[in-house]
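REVIEWER CHECKLIST
Item 1: Sequence provided? yes
Item 2: Single chain? yes
Item 3: Sequence as submitted:
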Amino acid sequence: MTGPFSSRQHAPAPPEHGRPVSDTVPDPWGVRRAENLLTSLEGILSARVVTTPLGEVSEIHVLAQSGLQAKQLVRNIESALLAQLGLKVDHRKISIAQTAEVRPLEALEQQAVREQVLKRTLLFESMQVSPSRRPHRIMISVTLSYRGATETAEEESSDTPRSRVEAAAKAAVTVLDRLLASSSASVALEGARIVEAFDREFAFVGVQGLGGRDSLLLTGSAHIKESAERAAVFAVLDATNRWTEARRPS
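Item 4: Structure as written out by the authors:
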């Protein structure tokens, strides 16, 4: 480089040689600006600019995606610094490291969440509540998926809070029983109700899990947020997910 980052800027103390500039301290030599510029270039994942005590560039370290030619990346870096910041840097001061695969943190988090969801045995797909043809009655439709298969069941009930919760839970258990048809397991609803705890309302269900000669009472709960019917479905999933997971073929 032929000169410091900015001859018009003055600072009481230049950055220490060999150390990047922290985001919490002044940046008299424009290092952060240069690094931000470099990371905006296509294929560059991260960049670090090291300066001398006089503010001249001594090293530029770049991490880039694989499949890109290092010489072209160096030319892009030289051109960007010259065009945007008026800085001419010797190409011998630029080092390029390439990686097979580096994804942004957001993408990694999204994939981790997706992997956890796919590990669940039972997945909630949808629930609908609609008026029945008969007065003062409703129809509740619940759709669940299990190992790639999707099933829907409907239950009719009177239009009362307790009956709606029981119907939603029964529909969920009916769907689950259909999805388990290929195995030796079966489920039946023991009961469903709304309970109060910690100044909140919860849907609480009991489900009988039948596997071979064994019978087990499974319980689950879900905080009522959107609707009591929806919470009842999630309570069924809470009660049965581990039980059905243990019966999933390896």
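Item 5: Key structural point noted by reviewer: Residues 6-25 have pLDDT under 50 and may be disordered.
Item 6: Recommendation: ____
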